[in-house]
Amino acid sequence: MGNIVFLLPSMVFVVLLHNSVAALSAESPTTTTDQLALLALKAHVTHDPQNLLATNWTNATSVCNWIGVTCGSNHQRVTTLDLSNMSLVGTVPPHLANLSFLSQLNIRFNHFHGSLPMELANLSSLKYINFGYNNFQGEIPSWFASFTQLQSLFLYHNNFSGVIPSSLGSLLNLEKLMLYDNDLEGHIPTAIKNLSNLKWLYLDNNKLSGQLPSTLFDHLPKLQHLVLEVNLLFGRIPTSLFKCQELQVLSLSVNALEGSVPQEIGNLTKLSELYLYSNNLTGEIPSIIGSLPFLEYLDLSDNNLTGRLPALQSSLRGLGVSHNNLIGEIPLSICNMSSLLDYFILSTNNFHGIIPKCLGNLSNSIANMDISMNNFHGKIPGNFHKGCLLRSFSIRYNQLEGSLPRSLVNCSELEILDVRNNNLNDTFPYWLGNLDLQVLILCHNRFYGHIDNFEGRFSFSHLRIVDLSYNDFNGLLSMKFFENLHAIRNGSENKGDSNYMMYIGSDQVEYFYHFLYITTKGLDMEFPNILKILTVIDFSNNRFHGQIPEILGELHSLVVLNLSHNSLTGPIPSLLGNLPVLESLDLSSNKLEGKIPSHLVNLIFLEVLNLSWNNLMGLIPQGNQFDTFTNDSYMGNLGLCGFPLSKECSNEQNLEPQPTKSDEDGDAVNWKFSILMGYGCGLVCGLSMGYIVFTTGKPWWLVKVFERGQQKYDIRRKISRSGGS
Ligand SMILES: *[C@@H]1O[C@H](CO)[C@@H](O)[C@H](O)[C@H]1NC(C)=O
Ligand SMILES: *[C@@H]1O[C@H](CO)[C@@H](O)[C@H](O)[C@H]1NC(C)=O
Ligand SMILES: *[C@@H]1O[C@H](CO)[C@@H](O)[C@H](O)[C@H]1NC(C)=O
Ligand SMILES: *[C@@H]1O[C@H](CO)[C@@H](O)[C@H](O)[C@H]1NC(C)=O
Ligand SMILES: *[C@@H]1O[C@H](CO)[C@@H](O)[C@H](O)[C@H]1NC(C)=O
Ligand SMILES: *[C@@H]1O[C@H](CO)[C@@H](O)[C@H](O)[C@H]1NC(C)=O
Ligand SMILES: *[C@@H]1O[C@H](CO)[C@@H](O)[C@H](O)[C@H]1NC(C)=O
Ligand SMILES: *[C@@H]1O[C@H](CO)[C@@H](O)[C@H](O)[C@H]1NC(C)=O
Ligand SMILES: *[C@@H]1O[C@H](CO)[C@@H](O)[C@H](O)[C@H]1NC(C)=O
Ligand SMILES: *[C@@H]1O[C@H](CO)[C@@H](O)[C@H](O)[C@H]1NC(C)=O
Ligand SMILES: *[C@@H]1O[C@H](CO)[C@@H](O)[C@H](O)[C@H]1NC(C)=O
Ligand SMILES: *[C@@H]1O[C@H](CO)[C@@H](O)[C@H](O)[C@H]1NC(C)=O
Description:
Elements: H1 2-43, E1 45-47, H2 52-56, E2 69-71, E3 78-82, E4 89-90, E5 104-106, E6 111-114, E7 128-130, E8 135-139, E9 152-154, E10 159-162, E11 176-178, E12 183-186, E13 200-202, E14 207-211, E15 225-227, E16 232-235, E17 249-251, E18 256-260, E19 273-275, E20 280-284, E21 297-299, E22 304-308, E23 318-320, E24 325-328, E25 343-345, E26 350-354, H3 358-362, E27 368-370, E28 375-379, E29 392-394, E30 399-402, E31 416-418, E32 423-424, E33 439-441, E34 448-449, E35 465-467, E36 472-476, H4 479-483, H5 486-489, E37 502-504, E38 510-512, E39 514-520, E40 523-529, E41 536-538, E42 543-547, E43 560-562, E44 567-570, E45 584-586, E46 591-595, E47 608-610, E48 615-619, E49 639-641, H6 651-654, H7 666-679, H8 683-693, E50 706-707, E51 710-711
Parallel strand pairs: 3-5, 4-6, 5-7, 6-8, 7-9, 8-10, 9-11, 10-12, 11-13, 12-14, 13-15, 14-16, 15-17, 16-18, 17-19, 18-20, 19-21, 20-22, 21-23, 22-24, 23-25, 24-26, 25-27, 26-28, 27-29, 28-30, 29-31, 30-32, 31-33, 33-35, 34-36, 35-41, 36-42, 41-43, 42-44, 43-45, 44-46, 45-47, 46-48, 48-49
Antiparallel strand pairs: 1-4, 2-3, 37-38, 39-40, 50-51
Helix pairs in contact: 7-8
Bound molecules: 2-acetamido-2-deoxy-beta-D-glucopyranose (NAG) (12 copies).
The site of one 2-acetamido-2-deoxy-beta-D-glucopyranose (NAG) has 4 residues, from loops.
């Protein structure tokens, strides 16, 4: 007995010892494996701006306490690695493949680059991979097929190229596949149809081409989001798509799809967002779209659709059908759309009739209303109430008449008002001067009267683009008016991070204003989006008289000045030479007299100069941009002489003081060059810049500016893609 009693503790001791040795041999080496793998990753991080890994990933604590690391509860192995949003720069080492219990790997919003090491294929427990918003390159590896447990694969916003591997079709547990914003090409693999658990498929903003495989959607019963916009897809929308009865978000925009919008769209009763804009779709809009009970956003713009706009459900928050061939009147069902919130865009169709009065009421919810380029007639509704939320209101190119409704003054958010090319008969809307209006375009109407009949009470201090041309304004050019243009005098107030005018929508997404039409340099320009840096004063083709006020020389951000075809007299103010970014100056067809101020030679960005048909005289200044202008800039001024005219100056005229050689040094030239290359400036270069920045598809509806780390949106609501958690 005694022995036994004596022995027991030692047996217990031995057993305990044995257990702990077993535990050590089971745990310690594996912990070290994970530790080594993570330290290898740390060693491959070349830049860690917040010093997170440097200070936290140390031997002092177990890897399970390291930042971004989570271990499984029983075996102390790393199961989750989340280094998202740490601004890390580096590569992914093969050692990571030793984290053999890893089920979630999230390194999105960093700057990892290079290609992915094949050893990672060993991570067969992975359920979630997020490499989004990095700089990975090369093809999407076909060995991703070995992640048989994978539910979420997020490779969006990288530099992946090549084709989408068919092997992804074997990831039968996959629910979310997001490959958007890459450089992928080739066809959408038919193998995707294997993914019967798929809920989200985002392949947008790539270069995928070919037709959508007709059987692709045969067995994707759970699909909720299908986003294939901004690719090179053509052919018809396959009918198999309408078997996906769970679809909520469908975007096939900015491709080259043809055929009609199928009636079967009515099968997709859960749709809340439908975007088919910028394709080649024809036929009528199926009226069944109007009975989709949850539809909130519908954008069919920029196709070749015909017929009438069907009655639509009152739940709509955004409607876009511009750039089609639609006819008829605006259906009165619009009046019931009290939840219209973001946009109502019917522009560039063949709609006719009067504007329903209720549109004024709706302005208490609609932020952007554009019914331009149609055949509407009658008056603009006058019932813009207090609380009007309109930000942009465009009715250009219609046959609207009467006056601008004074109730527009209730639209305190109004930034863009474009009524060009109508038959409006009114005086200058000085009463809008206290709004934050940035763009005011009244040209080609019958506006009349003075612009100097207000006493600084109304300031237009945010105005950057004002076009009063082709009206019947008269009187003097008001000094007060120009004095108050603070946005043009002091430069762009909100330089911000974008070159484009934008605002934050009701859904917290940034929207661009788009479509600005400006006549300048003799051309009708169409800007895909409004450049913030563009400033324009166009008072041409009116009956203004008197002198050009010197104060114009203080509008330091002015890019375009057109006072042509008026009855202005007196000299050209020498101070106009102080406008450092002026690119276009047109004072032609007035009664200006005196000499061309030599100070104008300082306008080193001046591309267009038109002083023709005045009474100017003396030597044409020489140097800088003045060496580039031709006879056309000066014709109809009998007293001018010197280059480029063939008429030589007499001795007396030659005594004209020459400008001090202005410093056209390397910097100035480079600056201009960089502007031409697309950092700013309007007009011709702005236009081509728009085309470049907005890449694929048809320029006028191009939607997205690609800025790394940021997504910007056009005026229309875009899909709110979650980062994919
Ligand atoms: C941390 O651990 C690794 C691997 O065990 C070892 O190589 C390294 O020397 C250790 N560093 C320190 C500072 O202890
Ligand atoms: C590392 O970070 C984690 C999580 O923030 C923290 O709990 C831990 O104390 C840190 N360890 C060290 C050594 O700083
Ligand atoms: C990233 O982190 C910064 C600051 O830590 C935070 O402001 C930002 O919202 C984060 N971004 C994302 C996408 O998580
Ligand atoms: C971890 O992975 C690397 C590279 O894949 C390999 O060479 C090494 O043997 C592994 N180390 C451990 C401790 O498993
Ligand atoms: C891990 O990958 C390597 C090389 O890719 C391979 O030789 C090895 O068999 C794999 N190990 C496991 C456990 O799958
Ligand atoms: C993307 O990859 C291509 C080559 O595949 C390269 O030319 C380009 O510079 C890369 N872009 C970025 C942003 O890394
Ligand atoms: C599709 O799934 C079937 C089994 O359901 C499988 O045999 C086939 O290989 C899969 N296709 C691809 C491309 O993975
Ligand atoms: C439309 O839905 C019905 C069931 O509601 C289904 O039987 C039919 O096949 C669907 N049509 C198409 C074209 O998918
Ligand atoms: C649209 O279709 C027409 C007629 O089929 C064709 O001529 C045109 O090239 C297509 N446009 C685009 C952008 O695909
Ligand atoms: C619309 O159709 C006409 C002919 O019917 C064609 O000329 C035009 O290119 C089409 N527009 C688009 C955008 O495809
Ligand atoms: C507006 O809605 C009301 C109630 O739902 C309905 O009675 C009326 O017919 C609708 N008006 C139009 C023009 O659709
Ligand atoms: C503009 O309206 C005024 C008064 O409302 C009228 O006298 C004038 O004839 C109209 N002018 C034009 C050009 O229609």
